[in-house]
Design goal:
single chain; 301 residues; mainly alpha; two-stranded antiparallel ribbon; 10 helices
Length: 301
């Protein structure tokens, strides 16, 4: 009992009461701020989680829309898709690269993007054929898309292969324009990018294009099958001969005779008669037959 009394601290109750009072004062002063900070932190965490879910859904939607746009063969829809998802670099690069390819293909074929071409080289609609102005416009649009791809891939080794594709596209545009120095520069940039990315196959392709560039200059555009099969217009028909009037009756005009010139008959020369064969010089003439003996009328011998 004495030992327990010794453990009793004098004024312990006052100390505990003071601590409780301080805690109550702290909560009274800082409690709302602490609760607000906790609520804000929880709200930020929930918002971040929802933002991440939103981004994932946006990425899925963007790639799904890109897959549908690639199947449509419409470069304008690919450009609109790239602008709608400008914050998704991967979708933008793929969409603009494909749009540039479709514009370039349209210029090379000489028909509008997505136009149906028949086996003889004609189109279902006359407006599908590109005029020289529209041809230049297709090349301009293709160059714009390739340039944007090069800007998005600059300085990123992970996207080197996409940059190489854009360089090849720019070289094709320059070739279609007849700008051979610019095409050579684009091939050299593609070769350098392929070398830096350790892509030997693409290095070989760029080298082959550079070596054949002089030969491509002399290659003329091939005519279509339709232009080859097109026949020249038929000559105008001769005027009809005037009608003949006989005793007040009008006789119908006679059509001109379609006479074909005849070739002269072929004369076969008659061979000369063969000369009789000459007798050999040593041969004797044939002997004459013996004449009959005379008969005596008197019966003599």
């Amino acid at each position: 009992m004495d030992r327990r009394l010794q453990d009793v601290e004098v004024g312990a109750g006052k100390t505990e009461g003071r601590l409780n009072q301080d805690f109550v004062e702290f909560l009274r002063q800082w409690g709302p701020s602490v609760l607000l900070a906790i609520a804000v932190t929880a709200g930020l965490y929930v918002g971040w989680q929802r933002y991440k879910d939103y981004r994932v859904n946006q990425l899925d939607t963007a790639w799904t829309e890109l897959d549908g746009a690639l199947g449509s063969q419409n470069p304008a829809s690919l450009v609109d898709l790239a602008e709608a998802h400008a914050d998704n670099a991967g979708v933008v690069i793929f969409a603009r690269t494909r749009a540039g390819d479709l514009y370039l293909e349209s210029a090379i074929r000489g028909v509008a993007p997505g136009a149906e071409v028949k086996p003889d080289g004609t189109t279902a609609l006359p407006d599908d054929l590109l005029t020289p102005e529209r041809h230049d416009q297709m090349l301009k649009l293709a160059a714009e898309q390739y340039q944007l791809v090069l800007k998005l891939t600059a300085g990123d080794p992970a996207r080197s292969i996409l940059a190489i594709g854009a360089h090849f596209g720019m070289a094709a545009v320059d070739e279609s324009r007849g700008q051979w120095d610019a095409a050579k520069s684009s091939y050299e940039l593609a070769k350098a990018a392929a070398t830096g990315a350790d892509l030997p196959d693409l290095v070989k392709v760029a080298t082959a294009r550079l070596e054949s560039l002089d030969q491509i200059k002399t290659v003329a555009a091939l005519p279509t099958e339709a232009s080859i099969k097109t026949k020249p217009p038929a000559p105008p028909a001769p005027p009809d001969p005037p009608a003949t009037v006989l005793d007040g009756m009008t006789l119908p005009a006679l059509a001109p005779l379609q006479l074909q010139p005849m070739s002269p008959p072929t004369v076969v020369p008659t061979p000369a008669p063969a000369a009789p064969a000459a007798a050999p010089p040593d041969a004797a003439p044939p002997a004459a037959p013996p004449s009959p003996a005379p008969v005596d009328p008197k019966g003599g011998g």
